[in-house]
Amino acid sequence: MSKFAVATLFFTVFISCLTVLKAQEASTPSSFVKPLIGTNGEGNTYPGAVAPFGMIQLSPDTEDVLWETASGYEYSDSSIIAFSLTHFSGTGIPDLGDIRFMPQIGKPWLVQGPKSNPDSGYRSAYSHKNEMASAGYYSVLLDDNNVKVECTAAERAGMFRFTFPKTDSASILVDLSKSLRWNTIWSNIRVVNDSTIIGFHAVNGWAKERYVFFTAVFSKPFDSYSIMSDGKRVFYNGYRFRSSSEASGKNLQFIANYLTSNQEAILVKVSVSSVSTENAMQNLAASIKGWEFEQILANTRKAWDRELGKIEIKGSQEEKETFYSALYHAFLTPILYQDVDGRYRGLDQNIHKAEGFTNHAIFSLWDTYRATHPLFCLLQPKRNADMINSMLAHYDQSVDHLLPVWSLCGNETWCMIGYHAVPVIVDAYLKGIKGFDAERAYQAVKKTAMNPDYDNVMTYAKLGWVPCDKENEAVSKSLEYAHDDFCIAQMAKSLGKTEDYDYFMKRAKSYKNLFDPTLGLMRGKDSRGNWRTPFSTHEYVEGGDFTEGTSWQYSWYVPQDIGGLIELHGGKKPFLQKLDSLFTFNDNTSSNVDDIQGRLGEYWHGNEPSHHIIFLYDFAGEPWKTQELVHKIIRTQYGNKPNSLSGNDDCGQMSAWYLFNAMGFYPVCPGTNYYAIGSPVIPEAYIKLDNGGIFTMKANNLSEKNIYIQEVTLNGKKWNKPYFFYSDLKNGGVLLFTMGPKPNKKWGTEVNFGELETSR
Q1: CA nearest 293: which of 154, 155, 170, 198?
Q2: What kind and span of H or E run contains 429?
């Protein structure tokens, strides 16, 4: 999922998230959101307060150990550590979780209590029955001290509301020493006045150098306060002056002390910046004017309703909750990453100002190029252009002149493989998304693909494969480079760069060099052209030839040339026999890969390399098998319960897969302009396009048994192709399915591979 170079580290965590739905009017899309859906303990979407693509994300953290609960929240945990200001959704490595706030009663703790002994530090038990989450809101009652915590957020700032019982020993702790998994390498805190603090911490974590500046304004002046450094109070010691209002170090905490009456609410306005505390204060001033918690929440709910309302569906309550929760997940990242003045900290750690675009951060591109960004082309074209401009700014700031691989808040993590900013850029370009310089973007994608030092790319270009004796994950890299190169070729062709088109199309055919006809699978080759020996087709080997999978998942990764892949197998019949065996294989002990959630034979829906595979039936003459598998996967891998996702959401990719397929189609090959037809699982959907057009999908006679397409009409014409084109929907239109209980094996048999490659 959010993938990493040392594979065994990624899969030891699995999502689990809260599903309590805040009671709201059922007339708005956000009323159907259950923000926390996941399963099996892997950190996924967090329960918290966040605006669409918001820069600040207030959320409880229940765990911060390596790989478990990468988003900070685990549904099965019975205690909460604290509430922090930054999070990301559904990845396999923990980071963020910056600047912790925790209300306490009695002598305040300075260190967190472990789950095994929660009373030995700040941590409180809680119950899901006293927890509530919805779009833009989170609340929970802390059992240990009977304090109610509520959170809401605007784009760059948020607000806590801590409601205390009557006590003379209430306090609010602000801990700068920790983030999720990682310790602070330096921090500073300053008390500006009797109700305001500012500061920052720097973290060396997955992102190697990350700065978070913040400000916090309290609605009630402190009765007293302390700054603690390494467990000792910072104050004038009578010998040499020491300020009690400012400190620096690696282990800093701030404590605001209060006497409170029964049910007294103390509110705290907070904001963050990557630039400075001054900018954090400006962000707060621009985002939140007063102390009206409910008004901030109402404004954020309206923002969510605007975004979620871009698709209107009809269906059951469960279908609506599942659909709008998925859309909510897809609209959490990439996050806004610039201050109100346009400034942000760039990849080179200098301060830049975004000119003519809005800067974004957190690009899990190995995941999101597949469906999330193609979804943005339909629903978020302006933001998608901003995200592309953010990638181009990353390229400009890169000393290696590379587009982002897996970038995180002004850092490159070098996580995962390929150069998948390329299909994001090309897909948007081919779909006519405006707002970025196509020629500049082309130079960036080309130079990235020609970097002589990046993961043996130029050896691949010379030999026609990445040699397994020179590079780990060599087969996966070869196959993914080939698709990215196909995308570059399409952009080159459109821009009239014929020589480049020919060069990159040749590279795009390199996948053929790794197909072993004796096995019908992809296999590693060394630099002398010898097959990898020994070779186990079902076994995953850490540091081997495949990324988070085996040959059985990756052997189908040729989305750019499905017809060519069918030919390698000897035609449709042997191709289909091999594809069938992927789903019927039943040796559950064959692989030692942990992340095999959503398993159907050797198809693993919990991991992205499998996400396009079921659509290959469309192009081999048996589209009814695609239809059957869409329903089987959605029925077993999605839903509106705490255990409804088969793997972490990977910054929206798992959810985007569902959203497309719920509506009956999927972008099987990003970087082209066609969608494969699957089988709808909701009766009606209305996509409200940015140009004012509405694309309507209706599925007549759809039911639990009626999952097979009987006929299709597209914009009033009978349609027998198992795909259609972006041009068919970009100005609005109608896709009408007639469904039935048995396959219509005559439907969907018209396939023209030539028009797929050249579709624009």
Answers
A1: 154
A2: helix 421-430
Question: What is the C-alpha to C-alpha distance for residues 363 and 652, in angstroms, rounded to an integer?
Answer: 11
DSSP character for 159?
Answer: E
Name the pairing type of β-strands 684-688 and 311-314: antiparallel
- Position 212: which residue type? V
Strands (E), 65-209: 79-80, 82-84, 100-105, 124-125, 131-134, 137-142, 147-153, 157-164, 167-175, 184-193, 196-203
What are the E-state strand segments in 477-557?
A: 515-516, 521-522
Calpha distance 597→645 (Å, rounded): 9
75: which residues sit within 8 A by CB, 6+ positions away?
Answer: 16, 17, 18, 36, 38, 128, 642
Helix ranges (DSSP H) in 622-682? 623-637, 653-662
Give pLDDT, residue 757. Answer: 74
Contact assessment for residue 16 and residue 42, using Cβ atoms and an 8 Å cutoff: yes
Helix (H) or strand (E) holding 351: strand 351-353
Does the bond joining 114 to the residue before it have cis omega, within 30 degrees of 0? no
E-strand ranges in 553-673 read: 599-600, 603-604, 665-666
Interval 679-707: pLDDT, tens: 999 999 999 999 999 999 999 999 999 99
C-alpha closest to that of 269 among 246, 253, 293 = 293
pTM: 0.95
Q: State pLDDT tens for residues 78-129.
A: 999 999 999 988 787 889 999 999 999 999 999 999 888 888 999 999 999 9
At 254, list the tokens.
Answer: 């701030």
32 close to 325: Cβ distance less than 8 angstroms: yes
- Choose among 57, 266, 303: nearest CA to 158: 57
Average pLDDT over residues 524-548: 93
Q: Is the pLDDT of residue 593 over 60?
A: no
- Of residues 69 and 442, the one with the higher pLDDT is 442
Per-residue pLDDT for 511 more than 50?
yes
Contact 632, 639 (CB under 8 A): no
Cα–Cα–Cα angle for 370, 671, 597, rounded to 5 degrees:
15
Q: How many CB atoms lie within 10 A of CB 628?
A: 18
Query: Does an H or E element contain 377, and which?
Result: helix 372-379
For 437-520, list the strands marked E by DSSP: 515-516
Measured from the Cβ of residue 228, the count of other Cβ atoms closer than 10 Å reads 21
pLDDT at residue 558 is higher than 90: yes
Q: What distance in Å separates the CA atoms of residue 748 and residue 332, rounded to the nearest whole number? A: 36
716 contacts: CB under 8 Å, gap ≥ 6: 734
- The pLDDT > 90 percentage for the chain reads 83
Return the structure tokens found at 1: 């999922």
| pLDDT at position 444 | 98
Stated as kind and residue range, the H or E segment containing 582 is helix 572-584
Q: Which class for 613: exposed (0-12), middle (13-18), buried (19 or more C-beta within 10 A)?
A: buried
Q: Output the pLDDT for position 22.
A: 35
Print burial letters for 398-407: b (CB count within 10 Å at least 16), e (below 16): beeebbbbbb
Domains of the chain are 7-260+269-308 (2.70.98.10), 337-758 (3.30.2080.10)
Q: Which two tokens stand for residue 677?
A: 């037809």
Q: Over the stretch 42-76, which tens digit does the pLDDT of each residue have?
A: 445 678 899 999 999 999 999 887 565 778 888 88
Q: Say whether 676 sits in a helix, a strand or coil.
A: strand
- Which one is predicted more confidently, 313 or 18? 313
